[in-house]
Design brief:
203 residues, alpha/beta, Rossmann fold, 8-stranded mixed β-sheet, two-stranded antiparallel sheet
Length: 203
């Protein structure tokens, strides 16, 4: 598949690395493409050409990106952001329980097929999940059935066990799960060399 990634920071570069390794064609959507750089196009051009677009910018920049792509109308949009900010006690989610960051993004892009994925672990794991004995779990939330098949495929190809958790409302849980990973990795000393996985009873 052709995958557009908006955001060339740690998460965007990590996902590009993993998906390129799996054989997907990667193009970066940027505000001002470099002349002669075939890997870059405008945000609108990149999303128009792609089978799916991954939003890998800070959550606060999402509205500007959506506007630049005319709302990603008719396109599969994978939200990899988390609504993080400084709250009491340090870094934390700025919303939750009654809404989520991706639900706000979906409201800004009502004609897009919006999904939540690639937000629940660190960029180090997104770049290469192969060292784990058991595939780390990556949960996917969203409504559109055809679009979800695309997203689940990309998640699996990136090295994760792709788990469908239902509609977009479930993203309220996934953004909190991301915060748990951040808490353990960055504040509790676990570092980035761990990931959440599903364990099943041996029958």
């Amino acid at each position: 598949m052709q995958v557009a990634i908006v955001g060339s920071g740690n998460v965007g570069q990590a996902l590009a690395q993993a998906l390129d390794r799996a054989g997907h064609q990667i193009i970066f959507g940027v505000r001002h493409p470099e002349a002669g750089n075939a890997d870059q196009k405008s945000i609108a051009e990149a999303s128009n050409q792609a089978d799916a677009t991954i939003l890998a910018v800070p959550f606060a920049a999402a509205a500007e990106v959506i506007a630049a792509a005319s709302g990603f109308a008719g396109k599969v949009l994978i939200d990899a952001t988390n609504p993080l900010g400084m709250v009491e006690g340090g870094l934390g989610l700025t919303m939750g329980f009654t809404t989520s960051g991706v639900e706000q993004i979906a409201a800004l892009a009502p004609k897009a097929h919006v999904f939540k994925a690639f937000n629940q672990t660190g960029f180090e794991n997104m770049a290469d999940a192969r060292p784990y004995a058991t595939r780390p779990a990556m949960f996917v939330a969203g409504e559109d059935a055809a679009g979800k098949r695309i997203v689940l495929t990309l998640v699996s190809d990136a090295g994760f066990e792709a788990v469908d958790v239902g509609g977009l409302r479930a993203a309220r849980l996934l953004e909190s799960l991301a915060m748990l990973w951040i808490e353990l990795a960055r504040k509790r000393g676990l570092g980035s060399d761990f990931a959440f996985s599903l364990q099943r009873k041996v029958k």
